[in-house]
Structure prediction request, 129 residues.
Amino acid sequence: MSKVSKASDSISTQLPKSAPGNAAEMPPLKDLAKFQKVTISVSLVDNETIHKLNKKYLNRDTPTDVLSFNINQKIDDETYHLGDIVVSTDRAAAQAPDYNNDLAHEIAELVEHGVLHLLGVHHEGDDNA
Prediction:
């Protein structure tokens, strides 16, 4: 089950030093099944915060709707932390009407998109971003 939190401006101190998608290799999905818990953190932020993160980790000087950070860390014998997802609620609100979504559904779709990235599904032409 994921943990949802409202992030503050200090979120960048909680994120990995590497760019999204460049952390340790995720084990095969069948190996994740041996853990009782696989965790993912979700942070909801504003455009300013996600813009700073996008620039710092991907060298893209623009806000975006979602970022995924692969952590891939065994916490203990029962728990594996897959990664962190950061969603811009400002961008979600702005683009929700384009997809005939309300804000909650748009945020849910962005979280889903982030989870797919954590599981290794990337956009055609992306270099693990």
Observations:
- Residues 103-118 form the longest helix (16 residues).
- The first strand starts at residue 3 and ends at 6.
- The two ends are 24 Å apart (CA to CA).
- The chain has a mean pLDDT of 82.
